[in-house]
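Notes from the 1:1 (GR / supervisor)

We went over the backlog. Supervisor wanted to see one worked example end to end before approving the batch request, so GR pasted a single chain during the call. The sequence is below; no edits were made to it. Supervisor asked that the structure be written out right there so they could see what the output format looks like.
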Amino acid sequence: MLARHLADGGATDTGRRPEPVIVEEPLEIRLDGHLVTTTMRTPGDDFELAVGFCHSDGLLAGAAVETCRYCGTGSAVETEFNVVSVDTGGRAPEPRARLTTTSSSCGVCGTEQIDALTARLAPVAAHEPWPMDVVLGVVGSVRDAQRLFDTTGGVHAAAAFDRSGEVSIVREDIGRHNAVDKVVGRLLLDGRLPAVGLGLFVSGRASFEIVQKAWSAGFEVVVAVSAPSALAVETAERAGLTLVGFVRGDEANVYADPEGV
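Structure output shown during the call:
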């Protein structure tokens, strides 16, 4: 894309020059032939995104994923690789399409959402405290692997890491939630869920939905560069998740700490 470049507070105009921008396209996710949702995403790792979304929303209900493919409403070329079908052989319950996105919540609505998760999910298993040096160091490790961000400056990152600080999966997307679903989907397809002994890193803030996805996947700790919401903290406490935010340099805020950091 061409962009006009200004410098010195607008005093210098160097004219138009090519600038890379991130691609954003819709992805329609289907489960056993049923429409689940349509999300705006950065193309790439689409099967992981679709599988991760279905798992995080509880749509699989323990059913194994048999196949994942493009199309479902026509050929992959006709749908421009923007429709992914997840198939469990009909073992997953018939889903209801999500017509609206999950948004920040409070009050009775927020309490009902947490209660619904508690009814579906058991608390995270008791675990050893996470080393603080690992929590602080994961930011730099993931940043070194953010290729799309280096090119465009316009994407979020999510990553899975272990207690030694090794980052095993890094995914980028224009949407924070999508990046997390891609990580969760990769773990599920690799047979690594629940994510016992693993932490989840997110490059932005920790919303309720981010913590919900981490809980669904069985992560022990969520590490965010920015702040959590009040509902995210409440959810982490209910889940038994450690929640760390504002990780900057050698500092961080621990908002939920069931096992210690």
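Supervisor's comment: The chain has a mean pLDDT of 89.
Batch request approved.
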